[in-house]
Write a structure and sequence with these properties.
24% strand; alpha+beta; 12 helices
Amino acid sequence: MAIAKAERLMNLALCLLGTRRPLSKRELRGSIEAYLEAGSDDSFNRMFERDKDDLRELGLVIETVDNLDGETGYLARRDSNRLPAITLDAEEAAALGLAAKVWQQARLAGAASGALQKLRAAGMPEAEDSYEAQHSALEPRIPVHEAAFEPLMLACRDRRPVVFDYRKANAARPEPRHVEPWTLECWRGHWYLAGWDRDRGAERVFRLSRITGRVRSRAGSFTAPVPDVVTVRETVESWAGETATRSARIRLRTDCGYPLRSRAQSIRELGDGWDELEIPYGHGLDAWLVEFGPDVVVLEPADLRADVLDRLRAVAKG
């Protein structure tokens, strides 16, 4: 079975690479023996979609094109699937080796390891032992605990719309969101997705830890242009008050809320297990403070205190 699938994938790749025009599913089915033996159209369609996804996972860039006959065509342009000669010195090879250790998520760790093996087979120099010894004390890590990360990463790469259930900070229940995903970025230990929210007709940023259930892919192409530069971090910073010009005073339990303490402009011990902090105040700070629950009490300004109380009441009612 494994040999048969490998042969089928190879034949599909050769067909897509060997054509100068997009080939439809009908034409591909008539050109590949394994597809001809498919029992039904549904069986062929499932097999073809799996094979196409597997080839993309292996790194083949497959384009989807609408042709004049109203059918969807597929091709893999040679210029998009050809890499220039790669020449790396010892320091560049060491940097790549260090980068490959960053990912803790299993699937990405395997991909990074496989990429290094291919580069070494092509002549990439090994990192010197002295470099490894010098830098082994501290190793970078990017934690990925959210189940939504992998399907969203693939959807961003393949430009596929997605649907997922998302719970806002002030909402008791999640609601479905239809999104054209652009990019993922990690900020202050949390992963965020930037994309086009079809229901709201505007750019939005979603925190992955608030996505519930499964991320589902949808057919079709993007309806909104993808910006050349997607400023995920700047958007999140503005929501969290990083670019604020006002200040807020809060009470925070001792030994709690270290992210708040790291941003505090001043900290004063109150005793009885509480501290008073002055922190930057901007749009979205109320949603962030709610996450700390009973460990935070807003003192001023009054509008921030009211917003936090409203959000807590909404959660309690749910």
